[in-house]
Amino acid sequence: MKEEQIIQAARELFTVYGYKRVSMDEIAKKANVTKRTVYSYFKSKEDLLKYFIDEEIRTMKKIVEETENHELSYFKNVHNVIYRLLEYKGESKFLKSIIKESEIFENRIIIENLKQIDLEIQKYIKQRLQEAIDKIRDKYGNDKIIFADMKSEKKENVNARKTNKKSYWRK
Questions:
Q1: Is 33 helix (H, G, I), strand (E, B) or coil?
Q2: CB atoms within 10 A of CB 37
Q3: Contact 98, 114 (CB under 8 A)
Q4: pLDDT average, residue stretch 125-144
């Protein structure tokens, strides 16, 4: 009960005022608990932020599960999932507030915690890509994968020359 009060108070305060401006005293006051009670559940304000980032990651994983359709292609699934996750990031008042604060103040603690969300999204994409590669290997063997890799590499180099820019993958 008290833990939930603390979580709700911190979420509201972080969303309205930002992470940096909110103190543990203010969280305790808003939650109608003592500062000691807040510290009995969360060692620091950063622990509270980590809790919210983990909560956002759990929500995003749920969105992935609800959005994925295994009857669709790899590309369509990844597109749909990324689109839905970006849509969610735009709808989440907490995330919008924290992201904005990280951009304005370049707060290392916030930036490091937000990176966890990006890492989870990257992990999802890598996992889905590996599943697609494995599926092709099972169906056609390794030769098709090598050929597809060379073909995309050649296309990438041609596109990079057309734009007179270095290829992202070839630094």
A1: coil
A2: 15
A3: yes
A4: 83
